[in-house]
Amino acid sequence: MRILAISGSLRDSSSNTTLILALACLAPSDVVIDVYDELGDLPHFNPDIDKAPLPDAVVRFLARLAMADGVIICSPEYAHGVAGVMKNAIDWTVGNSGLENKPVALVNASPRSRLAHEHLSATLRLLGNYVDEASVSIPASGTGMNARELANDVEISAMIRTVLETFCRAVANLSKSGDQS
């Protein structure tokens, strides 16, 4: 199984990116976590350029989405909303079916990201298979831990493993039900 993991933060020391990297450290051996780190390279979404030929960064992003069986997003909250770069990435997928019916889970690094989580989940529900049971808050913000330390923390690693197991099971079930249609 291949999962595209996206941090909605561009900060160098982002707790969201650290959490995504810890998730990659804890993935089972049969799961490949593809950490997408080109969010800042996507141009501002503009319907006038959402046609062939698409900008190179958009082509690369959509190709990685197409290769993924599912997507896990970890995004901060800015001004009670979704980070602009994350919303921009989602906007690029709408006309290109990049997230349409793709299983997606939201993990956030701070319990204070409640409003962004709600807004992002509402958007993702419209696009496809939002996996609510794998969408949780994991208290990684403010810990000062790096990805390896998060992966070694007993409580946090247990939460991450539960998210991964729940999400992978949901992706597999959705894939089976889609194969029978």
Uncertain stretches:
none
Oligomer class: single chain
CATH topology-level fold name: Rossmann fold
CATH level-two architecture: 3-Layer(aba) Sandwich
What class, by secondary structure content? Answer: alpha/beta
The number of distinct helices, counting runs of at least 4 residues, comes to 6
| N- to C-terminal distance | 20 Å
Q: Order of strands across the widest beta sheet?
A: 2-1-3-6-7
Helix content: 40-55%
Name the CATH class.
Answer: Alpha Beta
Spell out the helices and strands N to C: EHEHEEEHEHEHH
Total beta strands: 7
Rg, rounded, reads 15 Å
Question: Could you report the average pLDDT, rounded to the nearest whole number?
Answer: 92
Task: Give the overall shape, derived from the CA principal axes.
Answer: globular
The figure for the number of domains is 1
Binned strand content: 5-15%
Q: CATH homologous superfamily - what is it?
A: Flavodoxin domain
Largest β-sheet summary = 5 strands, parallel
Structure description:
This protein is an alpha/beta fold and 181 residues long. The protein has a single domain, classed as Flavodoxin domain (Rossmann fold, 3-Layer(aba) Sandwich). Helix content is 44%, strand content 15%. The strands form 2 sheets. A 5-stranded parallel β-sheet has the order 2-1-3-6-7, with helices on both faces. A two-stranded antiparallel sheet has the order 4-5. α1 links the parallel β1 and β2 (32-36). The mean pLDDT is 92.
